[in-house]
Every structure is written in C-alpha cells, then in structure tokens.
Amino acid sequence: MIFAGIVLVTLASAFVVVTAQNLVRSAFALLFTLAGVAALYVYLAADFLAATQIIIYVGGILVLILFGVMLTSKIVSVELYQGSARVGRSVLLFGGLLFVLFSVIFNTRWLTRGVPEMKPTTREIGRLFMTDFILPFEVVSVLLLAALIGAVLIARREVRK
Amino acid sequence: MNLFDPASLNSYLIIAAVLFSLGAYAIVSRRNAVSVLMGIELVLNATNVNLVAFSRFSTADLRGQLFAVFVIILAAAEAAVALAIILAIYHNFQTIDVNEIDSLRD
User: Fold this and answer.
1) CB < 8 Å to A154, chain B
2) Residue B52: pLDDT band by 50, 70, 90 thresholds?
3) Which residues of A touch B53 (CB under 8 A)?
4) Whole domain around residue B23: which residue ranges?
5) Which of A11, A80, A103, B7 yields a CA-CA distance of 20 to 30 A from A71?
6) CATH number at residue B85
7) pLDDT digits (tens, 9 = 90+) for A67-107
8) Residue with more model confidence, B93 or A122
9) CATH numeric code, A1-82
10) Closest chain B C-alpha to A160 CA, distance in angstroms
11) Is residue B66, in this structure, part of any structural domain at all?
12) What gap in Å lies between CA A98 and CA A90, rounded to an integer?
C-alpha cells in the first residue's frame, strides 16, 4: 500500500515536472520526485544512498536549480512561464522510448537471486571506497574540485580595468 | 499488480523506464535551459534506480550502489557547471531559450 503510494507520487510529480508551464512549479514538483526516489532506495535496502539522495539532490542540486530559476527570470514577468516546443515529435519520442524499454523489460529473463535481507550498508560502502574503489574515489574528488572552480570561473563577471 | 510489488525487480525497472522517458521528453521539448537541466536530473535518477535495483536483486552485492554514488557526485558537478553556463548565457543573450541561442549557427 505504502509502496504504491510512493510510486504514484514519484511518477505523478515527474509528470508535473515535464509538463508544468510554470518553472517554479516544476522545480517544486522535482522535490517530490527526488524524495520519492529516495524512498524507493529505502525499499531497495540502500540506506546510505537514500540519505545521500536527500542531502545532495534535495539539499544541493534542487537549491541550485531554484537559484538558476530566480537569477535568470524576472519573477513577475511572463518569461517565468516556459513554452514547450515540438510537442508532437517529443510525445512520439516519449512513446517510442517507453515501448522499447517496456519490451526489453518484459521480454528478458532477468537473472535474479534470492533477495538478501536488509542490513546496514554504510560501513561496507566506506570499506569498498577505501579498498577496491580507491582510484575512482580519488579521481572523482579531483573532478569535483575542478568542476567547482570551473563553475566559479564561468559564472563570474569580468571586471575590466 | 506487478508495478506495486516492492519485492519484484520488474516494478523498479518499470518505474525507472517511465522516469527516463519523461526526462528525455523534457530534454527535447523544453525551451528553457533550466527545464532541460531538470530533465537531465530525471534521467540520471532513473539510471540510479536501475543500478540499485540490479544491485539488490541480481548481483546481491554493493557495486551497483557504489556506481550510483558516483552518478550522484557527477550529477552534482554537472548541475553546478551547467547552471554557471546558463548564468553566463543569460548575461550575454538576456535569454535562456535554447532555441534563440544559435549565434554559432551562421
């Protein structure tokens, strides 16, 4: 029952995200989609990921997007209302993608093992990051630093003397 | 119904497929660059749901979850850089309509 509710909220708010005419409304609908995905992670026994999803997506990326909305449109003007172009072809792409994905999902015999019991994952994820996945972990930390410096460099205004 | 069974792999795959298609729809149909960015976030989330679902039902270890962590980190970096670019474009063109930013075309 609860799972059905979570699925419905996630998908319905995702639908609002892509169809709402008001940009702020679609940003707030994105909040419910991201929270719904975090709840799905809980059902998938990924407690660390659920917390990460809330902290980074809801606390970070969504706030960034709202800043983007507020900094690039005049709040009261019509510009905040976003048009959708090429609706016909986009719906066609949506239907085509959905058809291909569904046919793959239902025609494949997925390899499944018995569902393991839910247990805390944080300790094991930390151990894997420090042993088997140490190289991608370090690379991604350098990438984050580069992305942050690059973002500041791109977004600042140049002051000519 | 199949979709609402929390213990079957298929329900998660269906949810992720719908999220992915909605994100792709937003990417091609929206004219506001920030909305396109929201579509990209939906696509990345759909991918993550798939990764974690396979990690639980198929491999029964944590590698899929580690990949999902990396995807989330890359999404954060991507969102920061993309919004910086959007701000720079807004300063130069006074608009973020992706159909009007075509000065490289001619």
Assistant:
1) 81, 84-85, 87-88
2) very high
3) 44
4) 9-93
5) A11
6) 1.10.287.3510
7) 888 887 655 444 555 656 678 888 999 999 999 999 999 99
8) A122
9) 1.20.120.1200
10) 16
11) yes
12) 12
Q: Which DSSP letter does residue B2 get?
A: G
Contact A30 B41 (CB under 8 A): yes
Query: Are the C-beta atoms of residues B20 and A99 closer than 8 Å to each other?
Result: no
Residue B4 lies in a domain: no
* Residue, of A10 and B95, whose pLDDT is higher: A10
* Residues near A108 by beta carbon (within 8 Å), at least 6 away in sequence: none
Report CB contact under 8 Å: B56, A68. no
Farthest CA pair distance, chain B:
55
Residue B32: φ, ψ to 5°: -85, 130
The domain total for chain B is 1
ipTM over 0.85: yes
The pLDDT, as a whole number, for residue A10 is 94
Is the torsion defined by CA of A39, A41, A45, A51 positive or negative? Answer: negative
What pTM was computed for the model? 0.89
Specify if B98 maps to a domain: no
Q: Which of B33, B34, B88, B79 lies closest to A148, judged by CA?
A: B79
Beta bridge partners of A81: A22
Residue B106 counted as domain residue: no
Residues with Cβ within 8 Å of A109's Cβ and at least 6 positions away in sequence, in order, are none
- Spatial distance between the Cα atoms of A24 and A10, rounded to a whole number of angstroms: 18
